[in-house]
Amino acid sequence: MALRHITKISDLNRQEISSLMAMAMDMKANPANYHDALKRKTLLMLFEKPSLRTRVSLETGMTQMGGHGIAYMTGDSPIGQKETYEDTGAVLSRMVDAVTARVKSRSQILGLSANSTIPVVNALDDYAHPMQMLADIQVAASLLLSG
């Protein structure tokens, strides 16, 4: 499978969103089927903007699926000053399996994904919030299917 970054919702086409929703619904209905789906996988959650719901949901999901989540707060970090986002993307590619990033600007997401050889998912920037949009679509689909 080719490397994919999700920096905005339009990085996914209608069929991909539909497939993601079907998988999400199945995961919710049959969590035991996914208990080791992310075994030995590590997600780095990069937070320039903190979020309780984003952090807890990602860490919980990684744990429930057999993986590991690392929350990295950038407040005391050299990212963006001593280390560029482009360099950070390359370095993280050697250490973790995927990155979510909740940052202040579009250029940071694009910089992070520019040299990354692992998936980068935008968890919020000043332009887009594709993770939230997918969650909203899932809630709407659940309501439509249950009603």
Any overview of this molecule?
The chain has a four-stranded parallel sheet with strand order 2-1-3-4, with helices on both faces. The mean pLDDT is 93. The protein has helices spanning 14-29, 52-64, 85-92, 106-114, 130-146, and strands at residues 42-47, 68-73, 98-102, 120-124. The chain is globular and about 50 Å long. α1 (14-29) crosses α5 and α3 (85-92) crosses α4. It contains five helices and four strands; from the N terminus they run αβαβαβαβα. By secondary structure, it is of the alpha/beta class. 43% of the residues lie in helices and 15% in strands. It has one domain: Aspartate/ornithine carbamoyltransferase (Rossmann fold), CATH 3.40.50.1370.
Feature tags:
alpha/beta; globular; 4-stranded parallel sheet; Rossmann fold; 147 residues
Summarize the entry for a quick read.
It contains five helices and four strands; from the N terminus they run αβαβαβαβα. It is an alpha/beta fold.
